[in-house]
Specification:
An 8-stranded parallel beta sheet has the order 1-8-7-6-5-4-3-2. It has about 220 residues and is α/β, with parallel strands linked by helices. α2 runs parallel beside α3. It has 8 helices and 8 strands.
Length: about 220
Amino acid sequence: MKKILISPSILSADFSKLGDDIKRLEESGADMIHVDVMDGHFVPNLTIGPPVIKSLRKYTKLPFDVHLMINPVQKYIKDYSDAGADIITFHPEATENIQETITLIKSLNNKVGISLNPNTEIDIIRNYLEKIDLVLVMSVYPGFGGQKFMGEVINKIKDLDKIRKNEKLNFQIEIDGGINFETSQTAIAAGVDILVSGTTVFKENNGDLKKNIKTLKQI
């Protein structure tokens, strides 16, 4: 039985005590910390920059799973790597050269992820799947937390899993957007390895992080 990893999104945490919330996530069984970086340009919202990530790094030893929703992305990758990112995920639409961006991230000793919006086809990244560590499938349009899960992305996950198995590739499949106790099971059945969840982790069961993380992991 494969292990399901949980990457709670701190977009749903209490921003007045982010450090404490991150410590609590580690103590409650989270596998990594998902950091949504938005620039108000590539997506219609603004979140946190490298100085905040750097200040949070001391609160946990868990990997920082940093999702860059910024354009142009390549200009800022080193800043986020230096701040403490472990996994850096970018959107193919935010770079002029996908291979150059992959090479840059790897040169900084970070794992590489590529994110696919609901309307972005696998074909755009098909030739890069053997060179990356992770594909982040968005099951909402990025920009805001708390959106409803888009079930049509399940076929994309199944296709990625089929490619991975047929070609014996090692990338992980991550999903982000509307992940709750029900949709998580649908995603896992389709081939997902990593669940990103914010609202469910922080809000369900009166904010019982440990219970919520454990429930999401159940297969």
